[in-house]
Amino acid sequence: MAALLLLSLLLLPLLLLRKLHIWPRLRWLAADLAFAVRALRCKRALRARALAAAAADPRGPEGGCSLAWRLAQLARQRPAHIFLIHGARRFSYAEAERESNRAARAFLRARGWDAGLGGGAEDERAAGVAGAAAPLAPGATVALLLPACPEFLWLWFGLAKAGLRTAFVPAALRRGPLLHCLRSCGARALVLAPEFLESLEPDLPALRAMGLRLWAAGPETHPAGISDLLAEASAEVDEPVPGYLSAPQSIMDTCLYIFTSGTTGLPKAARISHLKILQCQAFYQLCGAHQEDVIYLALPLHHMSGSLLGIVGCLGIGATVVLKSKFSAGQFWEDCQQHRVTVFQYIGELCRYLVNQPPSKAEHGHKVRLAVGSGLRPDTWERFVRRFGPLQVLETYGLTEGNVATFNYTGQLGAVGRASWLYKHVFPFSLIRYDVTTGEPIRDTQGHCVATCPGEPGLLVAPVSQQSPFLGYAGGPELGRGKLLKDVFRPGDVFFNTGDLLVCDDQGFLRFHDRTGDTFRWKGENVATTEVAEALESLDFLQEVNVYGVTVPGHEGRAGMAALVLRPPHSLDLVQLYAHVSENLPPYAWPRFLRLQESLATTETFKQQKVRMTKEGFDPSTLPDPLYVLDQAGGAYLPLTPARYSALLAGDLRI
């Protein structure tokens, strides 16, 4: 009896904590504290790496930039450990070091540096090795136009070791956009994949006119003036190059250009500093991965998610990466079984592709314990874990050029992170009120921005400092106009404007709300495209949804339009769809137009194309897809015929 009484007394506080909803808050506080400790340890480790690289003998390989230093360190510490798996090819850390050393020496010869001297003297007599072009100056930019493959990595690492900047050019760019990218980053040379040469042939005269040195990464037949860079590299010795060649004068120096996706115009070359490369080495450590993990990476390497988070993050923990040139939902689980994958780096749409696949034997008994990425919507998240679990989903948020990142280390469904005081002490940020109509933050009578309340969408901003700078874009300071906000909370302060609206709930969880350019106003109200899309995606006959706003003559603001893809073998049920939106969304958020498509247009990183869809509008005479319009009076969605389209323009059809 006494034992039961004692047990009751011990359990009573726990029951009270649960009853008062304090227990979950204590668990979240513990998670906040654990992540803060992990983040501080990462910062100390990165500082130690930076100091070790700076203190190393500049004549040796250890004295270079953080990327070269880390690869050389892993080649010494874990020489036989597999770094990269690509198809049937495997490369250890020692092999990766040797391959990148050969590439570095090939680039140094193009610089006019005689690698055989060993002393680093610039020798213009070596300029003729790679053709008639002038030698590349120290710090010159070399653009890579390559698919995701091992050679991409060896050339990138080699350029870093040779003291040259790299520009990752999106593989799909041709003609005007390609030339724009090369000019904006000041490229002096371009390395092409042989399989791209045919599609690039019309661009070759313009590329030559720009004075670019042209290389191909392969032995296939090349047009005149294009030499085989891999052959040149294979002829070099694989000994390390002196570290001083790549050592930056400042850790803030630009070492890399990554182009934004260009969904709202021509791509911009975001400046990536040595500091950012160093910080990205901590990514997987912050996510809880370790050196024995095998990471599955099927994202384009010319984007930050693939290169900086995937590859550099893997180098940070010394793990193994399985690199795929293209993502295949049908092959994914077989790959995971074959390579004993433990970590999957995703973009939200990849998870959607997986849950829409028919069941397979390979999806059972896998070793995947952690899925890390961004853009995973709650409905797909729930289906993904229920079908493929048990595994942890760690949703993150960040921008290529940004100075703020969030991690959902608690695993809260639908959240991108936490806004606890502990997290904000390590990674400071704020949410401020934003006017969708003017496109500007709301300021008080003192001219300062106003912080949001729990549950209120706000613009995510982060203070700019030496530890979290904003370097802008290549091509001029005007390209970064609007990305910096001044006098946010006090005179003279400067914050980075992410352009994203987030919501912090009363429990401190951050949820992505919308892009500032995607949210639109209709009937005097703000409509968040993500909210409408999530409501529609809960219908069992819809597989994919893209929501955006379109201009309607005679109406203020923009009307909601939803592009829909059906889930086989279902058909479109307009009656159920209308009933669903009327029950789950406020009237101003109901889509006024529907567009039925076989597949949705996406960018190379699987982001939905909203700008293009907005421009295409809803004219049935110009669009091949079935269109529907909301008949508010009749309470139904009806086919948008030419007659109804004319009635709408005339003001006779009320939406």
UniProtKB/TrEMBL annotation:
SUPFAM superfamilies: Acetyl-CoA synthetase-like (SSF56801). Its EC number is 6.2.1.3. Gene3D superfamilies: 3.30.300.30, N-terminal domain of ligase-like (3.40.50.12780). It is found in: Cell membrane. The keyword Endoplasmic reticulum does not apply. Residues 1-22 form the signal peptide. Keywords: Cell membrane, Fatty acid metabolism, Ligase, Lipid metabolism, Lipid transport, Membrane, Nucleotide-binding, Signal, Transmembrane, Transmembrane helix, Transport. GO terms for molecular function: long-chain fatty acid-CoA ligase activity; nucleotide binding. It holds the Pfam family AMP-binding_C. It is a multi-pass membrane protein. The keyword Transmembrane applies. GO terms for cellular component: endoplasmic reticulum membrane; mitochondrion; plasma membrane. One of its GO terms (biological process) is lipid transport. This is long-chain-fatty-acid--CoA ligase. It comes from Callorhinus ursinus (Northern fur seal). The gene is SLC27A3.
